[in-house]
Protein 1
Amino acid sequence: MPDGRTAGSARAFELLEPLVRAATVRVHAAPGGYDSAGTGPTWGSGFFIAPGWVLTCAHVVGEGGAGVRLAGREVGISFFPGGDTTTTGTVTGRVECVLPERLEERRPGRRALWDLPDLALVRVLAPVTHTCVWLTDRARPRLDEAAYFGCTEELGIREITGRTTRLRGLAGNGAAIRLGDDDEIEAGMSGGPVVDLARGEVVGVVKARRHTGGGGLAVSVAQLRTLPMPATGRTGLYRRVMQAHDLYHYDRHLSDLDNRRTWTDVHDVLLLGEADPYGGRGRLTPGERTTLCGLLAELPPPGSSEAVRELAEQARGEEPDSTLPAPLSWRDGLGLLHDPPGAGGEAAAVLRYATGVSVADHREPPAPGADEELWDWVRTTAERLWRPLRRELAERHERGLDERERRRRQAAGQAALGRARLPAGLPAGPSVLLEAWAHGWEDVYDWRVSVLVGPARPGRVTPVAAGVRATLAGLPEALRAPLAEGFRRCDTHEAAALLEVAVAPELFGLAVDEWAVSGGVPVGVQRPVVFRHPDGTGSPAADARWARVQAGPLLDQRADCARGRPRSPSPGWLEGLADATVPVLCRDPAAEPTLGALHSARDAGYGAVLCRRPPADPAASCAPFHRGLREELAEAGRGAVLPQRLQALRRRAHGADPDAYWAAGLALVWEDPARALPEDEPLQGDL
């Protein structure tokens, strides 16, 4: 150990080194046939995070392959169960995905620093026996003493090497961790694990070394949460891998067939030196925590990220930090419970959270008895804690069971009076809000992405990210990561969340529905997208029109053209139309007469308006657009389903259905009074 290290960290390194070395791998060219000896030079390192899954850096799997696609590329994985080259296995792996996704299109040159988070997940293509690391559940690591590992060829000997350092700070908005300059990161160590020695958990992936000497950067493992989300109705890759991770450690902890030291065993030793202000009752033992993670992994994943955040907030007594990556699994929720502010310590918060999970609505029915087994564990674990807490947990469990049963009856269409419900419109859950403001008279824009919690908690807004001075052409790239994070927080198993775009009417032609945020599929194909006036349409007249449009039947009315010729509707004419009318505008929203018509429609209280980006050919007739919309509104019957029907039209057009091409550029202005917009605006740039 380098000078200055404490005896505690030296002991932790001694305990953790065999476990980490055994899970760390060498990444190289895919082996040819049965020959594993001719694998060529080392590209970098990686490590097993779950059975059959290796985490490394994107630039490692991109070595020597500038002309090939990274996702789907086959690479070689050599692993050393004994931590050295005396016992070696080599297997082929396939790159499942890389982060960020744009690395597939825009790859840096050789020796250039790759974009954060610079991660790759590799699937092993053959069943092999190996060990796995323990990943932290914290979204932001503590700055403490650490060790990093990777494959080196010091003195001509290829081996897995571990060295110690200190975590010096964060970079890249928390995506990267700065490593101290205690020792040099050698070539080949990129992609290896970074371990927090105080807590015995992997917190990062070695990314780069400084050109001028020791130290470098690592990527936070929490960036795995930015893996692309799947289509609704499917379990995402992140959740699948983390479930396998937790079940691996759970099974190792319970097994009595192997006397080798496990990560849980090492955590027991590391915990001995830590003081607990609650006399041993303030936190779970490592064995209890491993068991809890295993029980949570046996349940179906949560319906949404917001469901996890809400349970964590109820358990710890305050809102979790909104700047952290979205919690996508039940395990991620545990990472929000460290150092709670209330009495009782971390153990009490964790047991409250686990109680909430045991009665939560799951994406699909859990395995028989899985939720009851989790509750039995809570009740048994609470026996060593305070009696009032045990009583509180029992009451929470009873209330949760009653509430879950009520929700299930409603979901089955059986309300309190036994009446069947009408087909639903947009879900009442959270939506993603994108706001953009013109930066003075300049042609640049400030922006903000937030989570609008929705009708269940009116006025509740959780910020995601903000920026200044973006051009219109640069907005899609600037907003790609913030929007992806917002969608991860809001999407549920049943539905993709609504995207609300609050901008001035001249920006209602912004092609947000065509932006590709994740998976290369346009946003408007993946989810409903609507525009909103930043200052809303709130008035008694607006509320009456909104209610009438929601109930239907709908009437369409051309507002900015007559027989294909532009016209400017008068405010009096708009105000005199029937309440169930949906004004339709077919010309450029940024130009007259359409811009004035949008303002007049807002002033007249219209909460639902249809407009479009003009076609590329200015001589093209608008008749097919109006004809298609008239049929669409007649089939919809009521306004409540319009956002989803427009999404379905975009999906058809994206799938090359000629009968839907008339809807190209179609946009919906949707002023839902139940989704109040925040009143404050961001600062205008930097001072």
Protein 2
Amino acid sequence: MPDPPGSSGASGASSSALRTRAARGAVKPEIQALRAVAVLLVLAYHVAPKGLPGGYVGVDVFFVISGFLITAHIVKPLRRGTFTVGGFYARRAVRLLPASLLVLAVTLAGTWLFVPRSLWPQFGRQIAASALYVENWLLAGNATDYSAPAADVSPVQHFWSLSAEEQFYLAWPALLVVGSLVAARWHRWRRAYLAVLVPLALASLTWSVVATAGEPASAYFITTTRAWEFAAGGILWLVVHRAATLPDPARAAASWAGAGLIALSAFAFSSRTPFPGWAAAVPVLGAVLVLAAGLPRARWSPSGLMGWAPVQAVGDMSYSLYLWHWPLIVLLPYVVGAQLGLQGRVVAVLVAVPLAYLTRRFVEIPVLDAYRPTSGAFWRRKSTVGLAVAAGMVLVAVPAFAMNTTVRHEQVAAWDALDSVVASPPECFGAAAVDDTACTDGPADAVFPAPLIGDQDDFGRIHAGCQVGGDTVTATPCTFGAPDGTVKIALVGDSHAAQWQPALAAVAEQRGWQLTTYLRSGCPVTAAPPQDRSAACRAWEKDVIDTVADADFDYVFTSALSATRYGGGDGGVAGFVDAWTRMAGSGARVVALRDNPDPTQAGVESTPACVEDRSAAACGTPQDVSLLPDPQVTAVERTPGAALVDLTGYFCQDGTCPAVIGDVLVYHQDQHVTMTYMKTLAPMLSAAIDEAVGPVSAS
């Protein structure tokens, strides 16, 4: 997230004039240029992630810039004896909050006007978290994959970086005050501050590497894994005077090398790159080199490009441009009623440009000017700024929280209605409608679960603790069905295995079987883990394989998300064959449950939102698009004794995969099947098991 520049631009100046302005204390042209590069990387990544798969490193560049500038803003007055904590925070507030609160308020209004109510709780929580600058921790707690847009991706998800930066501002003054106390004793102020910042940077970098290896989804967002990037900028400011003594050719080479490292990471990194961890050192080092080099006078240096008016203009409004572009990309599909393709995302960014300019011109600059020493005593009062900040945050956060509570009573009523119909389902309810030719295909009077609670109708939510995540590395069993059943079955795998639990548990209950589950979000049980899985996930998978292999299960049921990316040339087949063979070592028979269609492949990112916003008929998807090849099918053919259960016919008919079948909502959370629809599949699953493995005796 870019720290907004001062109100003085450097857009039209020549290279010589730029150096003169920099010498007088205006924003340094190389910083503006680096800001421009950083924001353009982020925009390009959000517009065309496949074209620039590592464009997210632009945020890391911003972090280095912030560490560089904020360290200067604190250390200089500390050395003069004029630093005050209140003054520092007041200055930060007037720089950052007016634009950010404006964008949040507009986003809140856009959500209220255009977004389906089923998404209000999700969006409302994140808007409130962004207003309170804890969005990064909320996303970390949800284990959100920033590089994998989901159906309920928030229009303020990019505020995670602003939250991390605000938290950096909370800690940095205290650390540098400690440095000033050390400096008073050492009488070598640079070394004193370095003695404080270098250990902090090393500790944060170490933790970043460890956390990224263990749980990358949360490590991406948390401040502790990013602190070293801010510290790198601060350390650079303390030693940058030495770089100024280098000859211009060396500085020019360093500047180009830094730009090259940033470009390399933007093109070479992707969602499969463990990040931040060690990988973040590449763009961080690139930003450090560019800042250290400054504006070298060598003819072949990038100084002329840095001073180019369009580059400086983009850098000047980089903060507002960063704020506006993502809400537009996320909200426009709800406004126009269709998913945005590449052209639509380009249009969204083009719309963000004038909004960013207007915000810069009429919000950022006037507020900064009003806070200048010559503007009058009232606006200079820290208490006034504090009250304004608190009021602004409350005015955004409270309505955002209210979006959640607004639909809460409706959700309670929806759960009551669902419980009532499930207790006494009609003949054509759910999957039963597929087999009964007397059932009509007309529009339903009601859908169960209602879209408002569709994403909550999930095994992982209702049976908390049975579908693990985070840093859990051991097989965690949950038992269903008959506790003393003589036929013992297991269900293992990721969330797409977990979604079969309601149907399989019903079968186990009916037949007197004992069902034990070993489930973890995002972790298919395979001996060849997917490319982007964490070390904790890989350890869990191994422990599950070993646990099941040592147990006395009669059958091991498993499934996995078909869209999962595996390394190697066989699409993950060999990993399943290996894992299944090992689990069957004690005599168990492996039964693979073919994965269901994926509506997101056909552009339906959220089935509940689509059904609420449009209609059930408008949200069905073509089978040849949404039903992906499942590597489990091939793995069954290669695994002796393995069997396949394929219930695709109850998800798709006549080449179409409906969003609602028998008045039951089929999908939630991207491509997961609702518990309600899964329960209606129990009789079909029971028959399919007998067909695949033969009738199972209870004796």
Protein 3
Amino acid sequence: MFRRRLRLSAAAGAGLLVVACAAFLGVQPTAAAPGDELTVDVSIDSFAPVAPKPGNPVVIKGRVTNNSSVTFDEPQALACIDRTRLSSAADIADVSAEQDVAMRDRNSCANLTDGTAFQPFEQPLAPKASVEFTLTVPWEQWRISDRTGAYVVGVVFRGQPPNSDRVTIGRARTLMPVIGSDPLTRRVNTALVIPLRHRPTQLGGSRFTNDSLAQSLSPTGSLGRLLALGKQHKVTWLVDPAMLDEVRQMAKGYEIVDAGGQTAKGTGQATAAAWLKEFEASRIRGNQVVLLPYGDPDVAGLLDAGEPLKKLVAQARTATERYNLAPAFTNGLWLEGGAAASRYLAAASGGFAGATDQDLNLVSSSSWSADDGPALTNSPVYDVITPEGPNRTVRTVIADSALTSGGPDADSDDSPLQVRQRFAAETALIAAEGNDKNPATVVALPPRGWDVEGQATAALAGSLSLSWITATDVAQAVASTPRPPTTKAPAAPKSNGGLTGAQLDGIKRLDEATTTMQNLLANPDDLLQVMPQALLRSTSTTWRGFPDEARYFAAVELGSVNLQLNKVHLVNNPVNGERREIKVNLAGSKGTFPLTITNSTQWSVRVGIIVTPANRTDLRIEPQQSRILAAGQKWTPRINASAEQNGLIRANAQVITSSGRPVGDSEELLIQASQYGSVGWVLVGAACALLFGTSFVRIYRRIRTERQSPSHPPTEATTPDPLHPAPLDTTTTDTTTDTTTGDPAPDELPEASLTEGVGSKDG
């Protein structure tokens, strides 16, 4: 319902100021105090016919609601019109909303006071009161020509507040297309694209955060009402495949898990099954399906964030390319606003596995300024120039945002009646141009976050039955333009993401954990599909407006991945339930000690281990080769280490993947090193060399002295022949001993005297 709030004129405000002054002096006030905003809402709920022909009367129905605190006497509703004929889409766009013009100065809708063009109300309009009106306007009272065009018409409210003259204090306007004497010369092929999306609620498996998706799928929910439009009209579905996966799981059975961990059985299993059945029936009837990147990610936000989040855009597109949905679907991309800039369009339209020229790129015309936007009266297909990408241009379908804008007043873009009248006026003016040999083609795509309840979209779908409209789909719109013209991409600010910094940080943590899990597996293809799917769901644009749910979803998914990562860890037996340091000994300058890694997951993993000192720099650890551990297995490698000094060394032992990514938390080691340092070994060696060297010198000197000065020098008679020496006499065993000292007699030589000094006191 379209509503406008208009302030009381300055004259009425002055009257109220007098009353307020009386109240200040102690007189009981009879009207509102200064600052009270006297407003009356006027809504137009029905306008028939949608596009009258000359001579047809027009019936306008609606309601007036007094939102102020004063009573209006002599209230009445009056029809009004701006008799300026609008003949083009540009004329419609130029209609002013008059937001900055005082009500008494607004003259764009002149009152009609003849015949039935106004309706007085029998009773004064009291505060908070609401009254309906029905105005029947004969054709001649409009006082306009019979030519085809569009006009701004509406309803105003007039009444008399206390102590004031009668004032015009409320107004609502709409567009009235007129099918006049100028014939409509061509058909308008119209492709209505209807998004089917919902914020993620699946936590994994059969666990869901809430039942909001089931409520939306019901016949009275937004997704239920939108899907029903495909029964009577040819439409193009724009679907998030992540939502389809959630609906499929719900149809099998599910449970709701709240923030406290309490579970309850989901109530929407039958609803989900019925919705899926109708969706498949709609596809069989020929309604085209365009699948968004998996999870409908915030493309601009992820690309602006750089790596590692930038890669998620390509991953989302690849996931959709490989999605299981038969018969065939179209792989699509949907950008609007600043996200439609060439740097985003170039990066997101290609660069992923399976990208083809048949992929669909949808962009809203609202992304361009009014002066720079391409003309859309003939075809919506353009080659948008993308100098940042590998392809210089990207084939793009530009949806005409004017077809879903409502108006002409502000805040009316999601009013079903206003959207219907704007759509009818825009397309009627397009049909009045050109000729039937050159039919026009337009694409209508509601903006993100528009029409939450689906009522305005239903009004658009109903307008496809207008006599000058031919319902089509996006595929036919593309086929009708084999050689599209080129256009520049829209300008955009430096940053255009929709997700907050906190949300992006949560996505980074989840991405890091998921990547580590995949890197840990001996076969990366063993990674559970729900993990990368949950990561892509965390990037969804549908989280806008639900920050608490977004944080909870990311936290739960991160906890699920970390739970699996923590099943691969170092064995550390707790003491009294507390984890303590792992104590090992290192004897000698080099030594080994064991560490045990256990794999409690259901997959084979490839792991390694790295030890880094925390308080010393002299600890050296030889690198370990990674090893595959089957599910449930343990591995106890011996760590080769060395230290140059004695003492206690604190270190951290970390399980890593084959590429060096840390797995889980590290364990603290206490290494007791018990060995000499290099300086100690040098001193020991020097001492030994000195000891044995000194002994050798003394022995050598004694031997030389004994040979040069023997105790019994030989005589001439007994001088032995040097060539034939006499044998030594070894028969004498007795030795003459000094009775006083016990030493050998001076003239006696002890047996084997050549060995003296070895191990002796002198040595």
Protein 4
Amino acid sequence: MPDLLLELFSEEIPARMQAKAADDLRRMVTDKLVAEGLVYEGAKAFATPRRLALTVHGIPARQPDLKTERRGPKIGAADAAVQGFLKATGLTSLDEAKIQRDPKGDFYIALIEKPGRDAIDVLAEILPVIIRTFPWPKSMRWGARSGKPGSLSWVRPLHAITATFGLETEEPDVVKFSVDGIEAGQTTYGHRFMAPSAISVRRFEDYEAKLKAAKVILDPQARKDIIFADAKELTFAQGFELVEDQVLLDEVSGLVEWPVVMMGSFEAEYLAIPDEVIRATIRNNQKCFVVKDPKTGKLTNKFVLTANIEAPDGGKTIVAGNERVIRPRLSDAKFFYETDLKTKLEDRLPKFEQIVFHEKLGTQAARIKRIERLAAEIAPLVGADVAKATRAAHLAKADLLTEVVGEFPEVQGLMGKYYALAQGEDASVAAACEEHYKPQGPADRVPTDPVSVAVALADKLDTLVGFWAIDEKPTGSKDPYALRRAALGVIRLIGENALRMSIMKMAASALAGLSLKPADAQKLPSDLLAFFADRLKVQLREQGARHDLVDAVFALGGQDDLLMIVRRVEALGKFLESEDGKNLLAGIKRASNILGIEEKKDKRAFEGAPDAAYGLDEEKALANAIGEVKAEASAAVAKEDFAAAMSAMAKLRPPVDAFFEKVRVNDEDAKVRENRLKLLNEIRSATRAVADFSKIQD
């Protein structure tokens, strides 16, 4: 079956837009093909700085013919209805229609056959529409005619369209269409400087090979592989090691069509700047990789750049040009850093009085005071020194007002640590200045130093409670204040550091520090705990745990010790994997279902102790087992030995199985029935010592 080759050749496409644009092109074309009945075998899209390309192979040469039936008027209907039917269906007379028998009467039926069109004609129709409606995040118009810009909106001026369609064994045809005066053809162009001449192409394999010969690597992944491999080899050859940066690699591969890796250098005096500042300077300003000494792990005064040309002088001029740009940038960074060191962190804090954190939550200065107070309360709970935690919370945000962080926001916190150490602060206080932002995502490191943990928890809880109190909660996919991330950070800090604390007590304390009216800790919205429960479900689900077990534990109420919830969920999960657990769950579910039906029927709950004068041995055995298990499980839960609590629950399985096998719950005697329903309620009550089993899915 034929293949399609499509290329949209333009001026430089921003690197950040290329991957999505390639994916959008593939999706839009293939969706349209399928909608037109042209089911293809495979498709792949590519992007370089100057082109989007797509190959779709295995497209049928022609659409399938469509046969449809259209129901018309009844036999004997008015002439106007008959004529309308004939006109709509294309029939010349009723003799061409079939008659369908129906209990309501006989109807005319038109058999309409719509012959399929050649795929190349369908492509000529859909491709211009796709090009004109392409979803660039930003686009422009150009090509003024009679003082008016062109009609096409594209990311950058579009110069040429290549569109061919045909079998591998034959010369392909050009898909004939035009967009804003640009005719589709078979002509593309190579590298802007090294091979700018026009190239005639036929199908994808020919196209890709000719581009490579014209110094264009079409596949973005191939360009990444070349840059990465050459950069590692170049640095290794000189005894250094490349500092890997996947995000930068993705960006750089979108800036070149023919990557050529080179190494430059800068004055060693700039190594006095923190490594992270050097890296941010070189990365942000010149899109270059930094290099480290493998023995010390510290940066060297080298950098790796990626050019888009094989220069006649071996790249000396290109390297010198990059060095010329990087040198003043590093000089600026060094000046900022040295200027920052002249002012102590605490001396910057008064400026926060003039900076609003949120109009309903006050200034940054007020927020810092809240975090200080909360960190001091949390410190004893996490084994941190109260004075150090308070000091760290006092200084943690100060680096936001420094010159370096103003220039490179990504090093906030980190620079706070460097400046704190430079002014002689305790190591734990300095570490907390950096680590109180962590963890910032599921893959980010969780602080373990108690001072960092205390400040990190205080910072996140203040954020959560503050925005919860002013009703700025996440809605749907919108979470402008990153409250989901903050809640997950709290969960990870508590879980990975095995901390024991009441979330709601800490939240109430955080609320009390807000200058809201009324600032009443008892009025903290109850759904905040549910929000933590939802985040905990996400966390446990990523670790392979079942979310319904979280519901089963939270349903008991009063559960806001996250560490104990996690341990209880883990023990419950292991128990339900055993045969005893599976069978007991089935028995408990059966008891709950019967109770639910009978309670609804009688419009009452069957609570209270059952009469001990049981008529059957199975009733007596179950009642005795419930009493024993309830005491044993409750004692184990009190000791936080959840494995033992589950073992106690397992003892219920034999008497529960025997009860349902031998005993008829809905006995004809009303008193016997009531007593047996109360016994079922005792099963439900006993198992709630560990979880609400009704929330667990089968």
